[in-house]
Amino acid sequence: MESKPASVLKALRAEIIAGTIARGTRLKEDAIAEQFGVSRVPVREALRQLETEGFVVAEKFKGVTVADSSSEAVIELMQIRRGLEVLAAELAAGRRGGDSADLLRAVANDQRSDQEVEAETPRFSFHRLVATASGNSHLDTMIERLIHQTAWAFERVTQEEVASSGADHAAVANAILRGSGVQAGLLMDEHLRRDEALYRALDA
């Protein structure tokens, strides 16, 4: 069962990413506590985690507000994420997917979208799946955080554009399952470079 801080964190993060809570909005502990029916303690813990992830900014005398991330900052985060995900794909290939091999095989065979993988395995989008398959828990945690932070970049991306990533995901999954680290890394790099280009086009 999810803890109260984790539940509040997940809900607030989702609302910020979706734009339901606008950038620059001040987040008041008492109001959030009342909204979720909890004390201020789990709210405070959730806000601290959101600050660590870059979603909110805490300033003395001003309180906590939703961060207003610039396009340049988002691109920088995407570049860092790309480097880490390339490493994750290479490590995952070295293990041929490890305990995540069956899930990767499902992606490779069916070319299912992130949404479908997410629906079947709540902890994983395809990129989280590869991070977990790397077998490096620290890398997994870092990538998860960056995935949350860069999710803002794709608020305006259509479902058709998201679905078109399925072929890329299938190619990466196949390379991992074959144990081809170099190819898995190159394919992941190409895939995420396309994501960066898509974001730049949206922001142009």
Automatic annotation (TrEMBL):
Coiled coil: none annotated. The keyword DNA-binding applies. PROSITE patterns: HTH_GNTR. The keyword Disulfide bond does not apply. Residues 2-69 form the HTH gntR-type domain. Keywords: DNA-binding, Transcription, Transcription regulation. It comes from the Bacteria. This is GntR family transcriptional regulator.
